[in-house]
Design brief:
Elements lengths: L1 H19 L1 H19 L5 H8 L5 H7 L4 H6 L7 H17 L2 H8 L4 H9 L18 H12 L3 H8 L6 H8 L2 H12 L5 E4 L15 E9 L2 E16 L6 E9 L10 E10 L20 E12 L13 H38 L1 E2 L2 E2 L4 H29 L5 H26 L1 H4 L8 H12 L4 H16 L4 H8 L4 H32 L15 H25 L7 H26 L7 H24 L4 H11 L11 H12 L3 H6 L12 H14 L1 H12 L15 H7 L5 H18 L17 H4 L1
Parallel strand pairs: 1-4, 2-4
Antiparallel strand pairs: 2-3, 3-6, 4-5, 7-8
Helix pairs in contact: 2-20, 6-9, 9-10, 9-13, 13-14, 13-15, 13-27, 14-15, 14-22, 14-23, 14-25, 15-17, 15-18, 15-22, 18-22, 19-20, 20-21, 21-22, 22-23, 23-25, 27-30
The structure holds flavin-adenine dinucleotide.
Flavin-adenine dinucleotide binds next to strand 1, strand 3, helix 17 and helix 18.
Cofactor: FAD
EC number: 1.3.8.7, 1.3.8.8
Keywords: FAD, Flavoprotein, Oxidoreductase
Length: about 775
């Protein structure tokens, strides 16, 4: 035994000696490892490399390193709107929302009204990301996000129409890569809405795999404005292009070839982005798709051998072939904002209206929010909405800090849209048939119809989860992996070896430290992981567990990369679950930050607790999923015992907590108002959302009368033979029996009229034509 111990000590000493001597380490360890690494690492194509290297690493880096610091999290400035931005939200956005009626847009006009188009253009909604110097609004990412979120609480066609020109497309690309001439010409026109942009990348043959587009251009000479110039003959066939049918400026991505060497000696220049006026000869636009009953403009575009000068290339001829890099570099900003904001808007609409509906609607002579089953669904609506908005704000804040958070943008795109789907589905379940029967009085059916659109666009969700979040995160956010890969692909092998030696041994140190910390935190349930700054005492547990989960994730990520290597790319389900862990940790961070930044509102605490506990449970499920499917079974077993020795630290949010969240969104007050801040709430009770607000207030204002009516009835004072003694007309019966004064009856009647408007659904002529007829008891009386 003593001999074995001595041998072990000797081996450790020898290893330490070799590791500490650079020359020995390189000779005996790093060089053979480097040679193997160079041999087995698949060569990356340029498009893969550009996609992986695009953007910046931000809070995701801290989570990947296993060391999220509470101080660093709270040192990130709390995003705030400027006065001008808030005024725009309160005035212009409010006004344009009032101009648009979703039902009319869908069923009658098949487009947003002309006056709304005009207002959007002249009030420079299309120029939110364009600097004031070019005539745009020069808004922060936060303001841009707030505008899209608010529009989404009103009408999807309106929100998509405004969202797309401010997302990845002509304006964004021009701002980063345009020549001065292109910027000076197009940006003011785009800002004023004189040009309507669209960006066409997707082809019928290349959707998710967009780099494979068959659309192509051939460099050649041709005639342009009466002169022979160097240009390109471009052929394309694109589909799904938002604003395509009405655009005046078409951004076009195609692969550019130079077979005759007119530009140099590279025959395949690569993906190229050009701006083509839609009235340019040969450009075919105008036909429309019909995306799930939504009326935003979307359609195909084609062109065959369309000659255009090289000056149409964004950034001019020198940017030929740089299109993929441009798209990848600019992707993060739009993806961080557009869909996370619009889905948060839909969630706010759901929380505001459905929360109130559960107070207005009675069944079994009980307000439905009091049923635990309904409260459970309300809790999901409230908790997820709180978290979604937290993630939206924190991520927009990152863009305002100059980040291009590539991995974070994929996280929020996927997880906010997926939570939006849960929220809207729950809302639909709660309001029952009211949500299903479409018509002017339906306030949620259209959001429900629109959910799959955002799931599919800007990187379809299955692909984003399976391939991008961890796939890109593992390389970008990991402190050493990218350096190791660069070293392995270095043109100069000796320089590569030196870089590899540094990166690899840094990696080993990093993994060892994290593994020790993760095991330590596992056994102590993260007791030593105290937050490094003052935080809300009721949240301390979550900061500790965030550190613990982050260290465990970093360990699991390293072990997965080490054991699965390149196969991890094919084992998408494992990669997806690793991405889920990283994502939940990001969402938890955003929720903790929101709670702190908003002054630790006690009334919001149930929302924050619910959201955080749910996200931790999802992270735990993902850990369990990875380990249950890990190919190396002994290693999986060891990791399970070491990382979670006492089992899962989190249980699903309790029923008591769910009831508290349900109360927060179904009672008037600060929590409900903060949760649904900047939702468009019309004051007109003829509008469905206006009617819910009015009915909600009326129900709460007549609570005392309602209680008295119940007492009166329970005391047996309503004559059994009175046919009005039913769920609809009880107040009339009680009034007749002397239990209500005339005034009180009138208040109950007014409340009932509003309530009946809310619970009423539209009906139409048998051929579904003509105006809808929605009557309420109030209308009938
Ligand atoms: C309403 C709408 C508006 C749009 N607007 C525009 C626009 O303005 N401009 C533009 O250029 N494009 C636009 N698009 C295109 C959109 O971005 C693409 O639809 C999207 O990239 C998906 O392509 P696809 O529909 O062909 O699905 P496919 O690529 O055929 O994917 C099918 C399924 O396979 C999954 N999948 C694919 N590859 C993988 C993988 N490696 N791992 C796991 N799963 C995978 C996907 O997630 C998806 O679920 C729009 C689309 C729609 C529907």
């Amino acid at each position: 035994m003593t001999f074995l111990l001595l041998l072990l000590l000797l081996l450790i000493a020898a290893a330490a000696f070799v590791l500490s001597r650079r020359d020995l380490r390189i000779k005996h360890l790093s060089r053979p490892l480097y040679q193997t690494f160079r041999r087995i690492l698949p060569r990356m194509s340029d498009t893969e490399r550009e996609a992986l290297e695009a953007g910046t690493v931000w809070w995701d880096g801290a989570l990947f390193r296993g060391r999220p610091s509470a101080r660093a999290l709270h040192a990130i400035p709390a995003p705030r709107l400027s006065e001008a931005e808030q005024a725009f939200l309160d005035n212009e956005v409010e006004t344009v929302c009032a101009m648009v009626n979703d039902w009319q847009v869908t069923r009658q006009d098949l487009d947003i009204p002309a006056e709304a188009w005009e207002y959007i253009k002249t009030r420079r909604f299309f120029g939110m990301i364009i600097p004031e110097a070019y005539g745009g609004l020069g808004f922060s990412a936060l303001a841009h996000s707030a505008v899209v979120a608010k529009l989404s609480t009103r009408c999807s066609a309106l929100s998509v129409t405004v969202m797309v020109p401010n997302s990845l497309g002509p304006a964004e690309l021009l701002l980063h890569y345009g020549t001065d001439e292109q910027k000076n010409h197009y940006l003011p026109r785009l800002a004023r809405g004189e040009d309507i942009p669209a960006f066409a990348l997707t082809s019928p043959w290349a959707g998710s795999d967009a780099a494979a587009i068959p659309d192509h251009g051939i460099v050649c000479k041709g005639e342009w404005q009466g002169r022979e110039v160097l240009g390109m003959r471009v052929t394309w066939d694109k589909r799904y292009i938002t604003l395509g049918p009405v655009c005046t400026l078409l951004g076009l991505a195609f692969r550019l070839y130079d077979p005759d060497g007119l530009l140099g000696d590279t025959p395949d220049l690569g993906i190229t982005c050009a701006l083509v006026p839609s009235d340019h000869p040969g450009v075919d636009i105008g036909r429309r798709h019909f995306p799930l009953d939504a009326m935003f403009m979307n359609g195909p575009t084609q062109g065959r051998d369309v000659f255009m000068p090289l000056d149409f290339i964004i950034g001019g001829p020198s940017m030929a072939g740089q299109g993929w890099r441009m798209l990848m570099e600019c992707l993060a900003a739009g993806r961080s904002i557009s869909l996370p904001s619009s889905y948060t808007g839909m969630a706010k609409l759901t929380a505001r209206t459905v929360g109130a509906y559960t107070v207005v609607r009675d069944q079994f002579r009980t307000r439905i929010h009091k049923f635990e089953g309904v409260a459970e669904a309300l809790a999901r609506i409230g908790g997820h909405t709180y978290l979604m908005d937290a993630a939206r704000v924190m991520t927009a804040g990152a863009v305002d800090l100059g980040e291009k958070p590539a991995v974070v943008s994929a996280i929020v795109k996927y997880h906010v849209t997926e939570r939006g789907r849960i929220v809207v589905n729950d809302g639909m379940d709660i309001i029952g048939g009211k949500g299903i029967c479409l018509g002017p009085q339906n306030f949620l059916g259209r959001a429900y119809q629109q959910i799959p659109v955002g799931i599919t666009v800007e990187g379809a969700n299955i692909l984003t989860r399976s391939l991008i979040i961890f796939g890109q995160g593992a390389i970008r956010c990991h402190p050493h992996v990218l350096d190791e890969m660069r070293a392995a692909q270095a043109a100069d092998p000796e320089q590569g070896l030196a870089d590899f030696d540094r990166a690899f041994w840094g990696h080993v140190r990093h993994t060892t430290c994290n593994a020790l910390r993760a095991v330590g935190h596992g056994f102590t349930n993260a007791l030593p992981a105290r937050p490094d700054t003052a935080v809300a005492p009721e949240m301390v547990r979550y900061y500790r567990q965030l550190t613990r989960f982050s260290a465990a994730f970093a360990t699991l990520a390293d072990v997965s990369m080490l054991t699965l290597g390149g196969a991890l790319k094919r084992r998408e389900s494992i990669s997806a679950r690793l991405g889920d862990i990283l994502s939940q940790l990001y969402l938890i961070s955003a929720t903790l930050k929101r709670y702190q930044d908003e002054g630790r509102q006690a009334a919001d605490a149930p929302l924050a607790h619910w959201a955080i506990q749910d996200a931790f449970c999802r992270a735990q499920d993902a850990f369990t999923g990875v380990l249950a499917n890990f190919p190396n079974r002994p290693l999986a077993w060891a990791l399970r015992v070491l990382l979670f020795p006492w089992g899962r630290p989190f249980a699903a949010p309790s029923d008591t907590l769910s009831m508290a969240v349900a109360d927060a969104i179904s009672q008037p007050g600060g929590a409900r108002d903060r949760l649904t801040q900047d939702a468009y709430v019309p004051h007109d009770p003829a509008e469905p959302v206006g009617a819910i607000e009015a009915a909600f207030t009326a129900v709460l204002d007549t609570q005392v009368l309602e209680a008295r009516m119940r007492e009166f009835e329970k005391a047996g004072r309503v004559p059994a033979a009175d046919p009005r003694a039913n769920v609809r007309d009880m107040a009339e019966a009680i009034h007749a029996a002397g239990g209500l004064t005339d005034d009180e009856l009138n208040r109950i009647r007014a409340r009932n009229a509003l309530r009946d408007r809310v619970i009423g659904v539209d009906d139409f002529a048998p051929n579904l034509q003509g105006p809808s007829r929605t009557e309420s008891a109030g209308d009938r009386s």
